[in-house]
Amino acid sequence: MKKLFARRGFLPGFGMTMGYTIIYLSLLVLIPLSVLFLKASTLSWEQFAGTILDTRVLASIRVSILTSFFAACVNAVFGVLVAWVLTRYHFVGKRILDGIVDLPFALPTAVGGIALTSIYAENGWIGQYLAEWGIKVAYTPIGIWVALTFIGLPFVVRTVQPVLQDWDLQMEEAAATLGATRFRTFTRVILPHLLPAIITGFALAFARALGEYGSVVFISGNMPLKTEIVPLLIMTKLEQFDYAGATAIATVMLVASFVMLLMINYLQWRMNKFDAAR
After folding, report:
1. Spatial separation of the C-alpha atoms in residues 159 and 86, rounded to whole Å
2. d(C-alpha 200, C-alpha 271), whole Å
3. What whole-number distance in Å separates Cα of residue 75 and Cα of residue 77?
C-alpha cells in the first residue's frame, strides 16, 4: 500500500514529461555523442593511437588543457570577487556592471576574439604598453589564456552569486560576536559554504574553455606546436577530409571532460555529505 501511495504521489503528467525529456536529450546529446564514438571506432587501435600520440596533437592538447586550467583558476578567484561586490554593495551603475558580466554570453565569440587581438597586439591600446616591458600577449599562449578568461568569467559569477544572495548574514554576525576577524569569518564561515558553488563554476568555465574556438582563433596566432588549440586542429582535420582523425581527437577531449565532471561531482557530493554530518 505504501508503494502504491508513493506512486500516486507523482505529479500529473510525470510519465509524459519524462518521456519527452529522454527523447529530447537523446536527439541532442546521446545520439550525436554515440555517433562520435562510432565514427572513431572505424579506426584501428594502431591508427587511433597514432593519431592521438602525434606530436602536433599532443602539443595542442597540452596548450588547450593548461590555458583552460589557468583561466578557470583566475576566474574562480576574481569571479567570487565580482559576485561579492555585486551582492554586498550598492553603488551607481551596479545594474550596468551586472549586465556587463553577461556580455561574453551575448557577444559572438569571434567578435570578442577580434577585439581582444586589437587591444593586446603590440600596437594595441594595452599591448603597446606591455611590449615596453617585454611582455607579448597576442599570438602567444598568454593571449589564449586572456581569451579563455574572458569567456569563462560569467560561469563563476552566476554560479556563486545566488549562493551569496541566499546567505544568512546572522552567521557573520555570530562570528563577529565571538571575536572572529573579517578575514577569519570569510575563510572559516563563508568560504566553506561557497566552495561547492566555486567548484561548479570552475568546472563549467574549464569545460567551456576546452571547447572554445571563436575567441581564441584570432588571438592565438595558430602556430603548430606553440599556440594551436584542439578545436582548431579538429577543424584542420575536417578541412583535410580526415573525419576519422578529427573524431578521434574529439573523443579523447570528450572523455577527458566527462571524467573531470565526474570527479567534480564526486567531490561536491563528499563535501555536501561532510557538511551534513557536522
Report:
1. 13
2. 12
3. 5
Q: How far apart are CA 56 and CA 233, in angstroms?
A: 9
Q: Rounded to an integer, what distance in angstroms lies between the CA atom of residue 249 and that of residue 234? A: 7
Per-residue pLDDT of the chain (278 residues; tens, 9 = 90+): 445 444 555 566 677 788 888 888 888 888 888 887 887 778 888 888 888 889 999 999 999 999 999 999 999 999 999 999 999 888 888 889 988 998 888 888 888 888 898 899 888 888 888 888 988 998 999 999 999 999 999 999 999 999 888 887 778 778 778 777 888 888 888 888 888 889 889 988 998 898 888 889 888 888 888 888 998 888 888 888 888 888 888 888 888 888 877 887 777 777 767 666 66
CB burial of residue 189 (10 Å; 0-12, 13-18, 19+): middle
Q: Are 238 and 153 in contact (CB under 8 A)?
A: no
Report the C-alpha gap between 105 and 158 in whole angstroms.
11
CA nearest to 86, candidates 9, 11, 162, 138: 162
Which residue do the cell numbers 505529479 mark?
A: 11
Return d(Cα 101, Cα 150) in angstroms, integer.
10
Residues near 147 by beta carbon (within 8 Å), at least 6 away in sequence: 112, 113, 116, 212, 215, 216, 219, 220
Q: What's at 95, amino acid-wise?
A: R
Three cell numbers at 33? 555523442
